[in-house]
Amino acid sequence: MSDARGTGPYRQALHDGWTLRAVPDPLVPAGIGGRAIPATVPGCVHTDLLAAGLIPDPYLDDNETDLAWIGRTDWVYETTFDRSAGDPQRLDLVCAGLDTVATVTVNDVAVGHTENMHRGYRFDVTSLLRAEGNTLAVRFDSAYRYAQAHRDRLGDRPNAYPEPFQFIRKMACNFGWDWGPTLVTAGIWQAIGLHGWSAARLATVRPLVTVDGGDGRVELHVEVERATDVPVTVRARVAGQSAEVAIPVGERAAVLTLTVDRPELWWPRGYGGQRRYELTVTLHGPGGHLLDTWDRRIGFRSVRLDTTPDAHGAPFALHVNEVPVFVRGANWIPDDAFPNRVTADRLARRFDQAQAANINLLRVWGGGRYESADFYDLADERGLLVQQDFLFACAAYPEEEPFTTEVAAEAAEQVTRLAGHPSLVLWTGNNENIWGWHDWDWQEPLAGRSWGRGYYLELLPRLVAELDPTRPYWPSSPYSGSEELHPNDPAYGTTHIWDVWNTDDYVRYRDYVPRFVAEFGYQGPPTYATLRRALSDEPLAHDSPGMAHHQKAADGDLKLRRGLVAHLPVPRDFDDWHYLTQLNQARAVSLGVEHFRSHRGRCMGAIVWQLNDCWPVTSWAAIDGDGRRKPLWYALRRAYADRLLTVQPREAGLALVAVNDGGRPWRTTITATRLTLAGEPKAKCTLELQVPAYSAVTVPLPADQVRPDDGRDEVLVAAEDGVAGGRALWFFAEDRDVRWPAAGFDAVVEPTAGGQRVRVTAHTILRDLTLYPDRLDPSAEVDEALVTLLPGESVTFTVHAGDPLDPVALTTRPVLRCVNDGVPGRKLVD
Ligand code: BMA
């Protein structure tokens, strides 16, 4: 792509004709050493080797293990190019992202050396380029060698995982995580190209957008870079308003202010629309000719973090446009271990899934990346709030050079880059590093060495305050607001609840009334189709070799089992294990969400760990590594719905809590019935509820509702009169102790546009009825899951698949499951 017009500005992508070579080393397998491999740019070594058929797919079975040499090898990317016509005063080679330790050479002259994946670089190559036959080479030194050299020089520091990821400014989870493979990439991971310009260009444009008494305000900070010292003019336009400022010779920065009278505001989804306005900035030379342009769709909204101490400690409440927002969030990790595979379409699918699960915030976790323009554009467009961590996670980070300089440059660049996005509402200093310093036995091995404190409590807050005072900054996740307090104190600021998964049972979520829970989660395996694509284990078992390799958490399999046997019947085979562990994951997280939401007000947010996966793996994710929705996704959609009815234990017994996260008051009549599993009513009452917008109401349930005659044979159901769905259930015993009847039902399958409808009518109670059409066709999807039916009730599932699925298979085990289908004497299809 080139756009050469005389001496005007032009851009020429350099994405063609690349090859890749391994620098000779005994580690490099024969057949790869010395060979020129076609390379895709942007891309990375792993995906190039895979495309060339030189390595097996790193995501399948345990192939990951044999591919460790790739990260320990040095690689050279090369191409040749002719430059576009035109005669600009400056020609820059612009690299939006190099991963990571790179030496860039143009026509055999080294033009730059980089060592930070999270920055962009620009090299002046004006004097080096000829019209035709230019060579461009980027050599990547092994990230391991670099990190280990710094570790050896500076002294090791504690880290939650074995690899030296905190000694290089590179996506940390590339070195392996408790849900991710160790696949240490190298490559030109973002766009690369030439930028030709004359006189001056817009070097940075930083719009600070606020709302002031209903008026929109844009404070636009502009910096120019000059090729010649001529006066230039910056013009800006938004919503019919314009402003202009001259930058005289010798100066390079200007601030313009634009005020928009009563603009339509940008709101998070569920609170209002997402109106955006085009902001255009142009740079003009003497005589007014155009030198450069910049544009972005901004949104007018204010954001404020309320942490004013109160009777319970100190809250953590995001206020957008002065309305407190209860955060129904999910943590976001890189959607692929190879970030170049995360296309805009794939992100859009992920956002569709997040949105449909009633999520209103994504937290971009600190072990990944500063998310892409595509990600933030989607978030702006759909009204998903974003919390972006600075990139530090689960380790003590050195503050010696070159790291302090790199971190400062990276942070300034990213804060500037993301300033125009209304969705970004919070910066956080790191993931768990202040907590780690307090609680994870770091202090003794550190022996006084730096660990990152200066970044989180000094450098980063200073930079955010200087470059973007419109957004709140919080030093860590979790953090309590002061170094005097324990960083994970649930009464203050943000909390991570991990003892539930690691050591305790999930009902222990109820022991916490956190002000804001920024991480909590429970594992479950990926969907069956994803497992079958990734693993050749025959048969699949919870501990078969592939399953074990694709479970990265410490004692993950044991923890899954411990959690399962506390609640559910013991699995008899893999199919049971798969259904029940997925179900247990969904149960655990819904219990947490419903509990936290039931304390709306005191608690103002829950961010589940985690939305997505980066490869096929057993993990805390709701959407697996192939993008398929796990049962947890369906459970989240329900637990995160605007209107939630939930039965919660309270001092006096049980209470019904109605949570209204919608903007309209919710007036409704609820019938609560205690009944036997056979459907015989034992007690009934009617409750009138009035729940104002954005609030929760708690109503104690009468004693005859909450005291069962036989806890193993009864259920409490609270449902809105005349409204299907959304009812609350309360079982008086764990599923493993309940006296389930053998499941009995009719199932009818009929074709429908583009799929099939499966109508199940219950003859007995059916607990958490779930359909797994992906077991029959990996492309098949279903619209509902985890439905509990009382005798006589029915549900219709809609299945979409490539071809019609076999109706018998679709309505029998293991495709159609419920908890009580394993009860002896079971009667699956009537
Ligand atoms: C938290 C996260 C991640 C981790 C997850 C599950 O510590 O911040 O680092 O993957 O828990 O253990």
General form: globular
Q: Biggest sheet, strands in spatial order?
A: 3-2-4-9-6-7
Mean pLDDT, all residues: 96
- What share of the residues lie within helices? 10-25%
Please describe the biggest sheet, giving its number of strands, its sense, and whether it closes into a barrel: 6 strands, antiparallel
Question: In terms of per-residue confidence, which ranges show pLDDT below 50 for 5 or more consecutive residues?
Answer: 1-6, 826-830
Round the Cα radius of gyration to an integer and report it: 29 Å
How far is the first residue's CA from the last residue's CA? 64 Å
Given helix and strand content, the structural type is: alpha+beta
Ligands = beta-D-mannopyranose
Secondary structure tally: strands: 44
How many helices?
A: 17
β content, as a range? 25-35%
Please tag this protein with its features:
830 residues, alpha+beta, 6-stranded antiparallel beta sheet, 6-stranded parallel beta sheet, 17 helices, 44 strands, 31% strand, globular, disordered C terminus, binds beta-D-mannopyranose
Description:
By secondary structure, this protein is α+β, with helices and mostly antiparallel strands. 19% of the residues lie in helices and 31% in strands. The strands form twelve sheets. Strands 3-2-4-9-6-7 form a six-stranded antiparallel β-sheet. Helix 6 (403-418) packs parallel to helix 9. The structure holds beta-D-mannopyranose. Beta-D-mannopyranose (BMA) binds next to loops.
